[in-house]
User: What shape does this take?
Amino acid sequence: MMSTPHIPSFPFTPGGPDASKAAASRTATPGTAASGTTAVGVASVFLTGAAGALPSRTVAVLEAIKHAILTGELGPGQALVETDLAEVLGVSKTPVREALKTLAGAGLVTMSPYRGAAVRVVDAELARHVYDVRRLVEPEALTRSVRPGRDWQQAHQALARADSAADQVGRSLANRDFHRELYLACGNPLLVRLLDDLRDQTALVSVSAWRHEPGWGQAPSWEREAAEHRAVLMAAEEDDAERAASLLRHHITSFVARNFPNGLENQNL
Assistant: This one.
């Protein structure tokens, strides 16, 4: 049994069906949760701000769990027990169950009829597959996003947040925002949605890289990543779509080569 930290409850709509439960969870004394998962031991940081203003219980729960996975608070292979998560989040098991199904569809969670749900474990093969799709698709989306007069201010702000981040989690979140700015204006919402989905799996791969290499994300590794980002953005600002796409393709490929080198000889990256 593991003590449950104090977790702020979601701000459900006053008077709604969960109003009494939300009020109770704000005043309840932290107790103990069911055994079988360490989710209840996760610090409240992974919930704070993750789903604060979202009105839907399921969406709020989904965002909270996803945030915990993508920041490494819930580690690869960690069991995700519905009753434990429901207690921590102050909701019933139903939104937790639906959130886990959605996360499984997004490739962040695995579900087994015998072992239940768990955070997906990343291996070199999965990393190469995710980055191979990104290598094929993201540079094309960037090419379509480069046009005269395009405002790249949000991309610059993401780079600044990455530079000033205090840890790997902050850098990863800023990195996600930067890459999204590269393809957001491609003009094809289906392409944006595809890359958004890959963005989550990319972050999962990054979390695995941190765990395999504790020094990952520190100088000079992070400085190399940041330099590659700045070079891509500079080419985009100069309206050199071909060069920007080429630099981005190299950036995507080199990450896998540095962090998941095993078996690269069998992958055309």
In short: The longest helix spans residues 189-212.
